[in-house]
């Protein structure tokens, strides 16, 4: 059990448009996860469009040094780490979302 201040409870119920605080909190949390999923999916789509391939292929081409650019360049390394982060977080939030619904 969690205790929340009346002010936070009122804000939650107004945001979620429901008088029940627990329902409101679930709605806000699920909406947050959905927003994270949408943002991460867009980031991944942007990387796929930029490199014209999915992450698995990008990663393999870096490993085998068969990328059109220098695999040790700042751009490639930054995109690799940012893309890998987005892929990992997408899986994480997708798992959380499926456990809650």
Explain what this protein looks like in three dimensions.
The chain is 77% helix and 0% strand. It is built from 4 helices and no strands. Helix 1 packs across helix 2 and helix 2 runs antiparallel to helix 4.
Keyphrases for this structure?
101 residues, mainly alpha, 0% strand, elongated
Order of helices and strands: HHHH
Q: Any low-confidence stretches, pLDDT <50, length ≥5?
A: none
Rg of Cα set:
20 Å
Q: Could you say which overall geometry the principal axes of the C-alpha atoms support?
A: elongated
Let me know the average pLDDT: 95
**Helix amount, in percent?**
over 70%
Structural class: mainly alpha
Strand content: under 5%
Largest sheet: number of strands, sense, barrel closure: none
Structure summary, number of beta strands: 0
Number of helices: 4
Distance between the termini: 20 Å
Q: Topology, pairings included?
A:
Blueprint: H1 6-16, H2 21-51, H3 55-63, H4 74-100
Helix pairs in contact: 1-2, 2-4
């Amino acid at each position: 059990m969690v205790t929340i201040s009346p002010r936070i409870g009122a804000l939650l119920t107004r945001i979620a448009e429901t008088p029940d605080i627990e329902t409101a909190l679930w709605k806000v949390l699920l909406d947050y996860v959905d927003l994270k999923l949408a943002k991460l999916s867009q980031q991944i789509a942007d990387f796929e469009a930029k490199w014209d391939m999915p992450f698995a292929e990008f990663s393999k081409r870096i490993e085998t040094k068969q990328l059109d650019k220098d695999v040790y360049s700042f751009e490639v390394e930054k995109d690799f780490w940012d893309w890998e982060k987005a892929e990992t977080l997408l899986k994480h939030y997708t798992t959380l979302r499926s456990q809650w619904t």
